[in-house]
Amino acid sequence: MDLTSEIAQQLYDGDADGVARRVEQALEQGLDPRQVLQQGLLAGMGRVGQDFQAGELFVPELIVAARAMHAGLDRLRPHLAAADGDADATVVIGTVQGDLHDIGKRLVGIMMQGVGLRVVDLGHDVAPDRFVEAAHKEGAALVGLSALLSTTMPMMRATIEALREAGLPVRTLVGGAPVTRRWADEIGADGYAPDAVAAAALARELLR
Fold first, then answer.
1. Which candidate in 16, 94, 134, 196 could, as Cys together with 71 as Cys, close a disulfide (CB 3.0–4.6 Å)?
2. What pTM does this model have?
C-alpha cells in the first residue's frame, strides 16, 4: 500500500495521529501536496461519506474521521498554499434568524472543512444583514443557510434576497430538517443538501 492509500485508510479509521505522521512522511519523500490531498485525504473522506450515506457509519465515526482530516490538513495546508498560490474557497454558514438550533449546522461546517474549504461559522439566530456583512468581509464564494424550525424557513428567502440585493457574487446552499429541494428551488437557492456529507460534496461542486 502506498503512502496516499495509507493516509486514506487511516483517515477512514479515524487515526488522527497516524494521518498527520503519514502526511509529513509523504511530504518528506517529495510527493506533490495536491496528490496527498486528492489521493489521500479527500479519497479517505469520500469513502467515509459514502459509507455514512449507506448507513454503515454514523455521526460519531463521521466526527472522528473529520478530526483526522483536520490533522492532515494542518500539516498539508502551508504546502498547498505554496504549490497553488491560492487560499481555500471561503464558505459562510449559519442558522437563520429566529432559530437557535446549531448541532447539524456545526457538523456541516466540520465536513466542509474536511473537504478543504475555509469555513466561517456565524452561529445561530443570524439576521440576513449579518450574512451579507460576513460574506462581503470574508470574500465568501458560498453562503450556507440552516433551519430546523418550519417557522424560520422564510428567513432563508429573506437572506437570499438580501445577498442578491447587495450584489454579492455568492452561491447559496440550504438545508435542515424541514427544508426540501422544492423549497430550495422556490426561494432561489443554488443548492439543497439533506445531510452534512451531501452538503460538503455539493459545496465543492457549486464552487468548482
1. 16
2. 0.72
